[in-house]
Amino acid sequence: MAYTHENSRGQTYYLHSRVTNLRGGRQQRIYFFAKTIKDGAIDAVPDGYIVSENQRTGLPLLKKG
Fold first, then answer.
1. Alpha-carbon distance 9 to 26, whole Å?
2. Which residue range(s) make up the domain with 60?
3. What is the tens place of the pLDDT at every residue in 13-52?
4. Phi, psi of 4 (to 5 degrees)
5. Which pTM does this prediction carry?
6. Which helix (H) or strand (E) holds 29?
7. 2 phi and psi angles, rounded to 5 deg
8. How far is the C-alpha of 54 from the C-alpha of 39, rounded, in Å?
9. Rounded to whole angstroms, how far apart are CA atoms 54 and 26?
10. How many domains does the chain have?
11. How many whole angstroms separate alpha carbon 64 and alpha carbon 51?
């Protein structure tokens, strides 16, 4: 089951992870929230991160904490 977060507006978001290719050939793992469960959904917040919320849009995001 994917990690879920309900924002202050009552909307539910699911945490996802993906490896992207940067310029120069380096790979980097990114984390993002989506309203639906897609490929790459993960079960828990990674170690060293906390869930925060954008005050203007209500979109949840991960911060190193």
1. 37
2. 4-64
3. 999 999 999 999 999 999 999 999 999 999 999 999 999 9
4. -115, 150
5. 0.89
6. strand 27-34
7. -75, 150
8. 24
9. 29
10. 1
11. 9
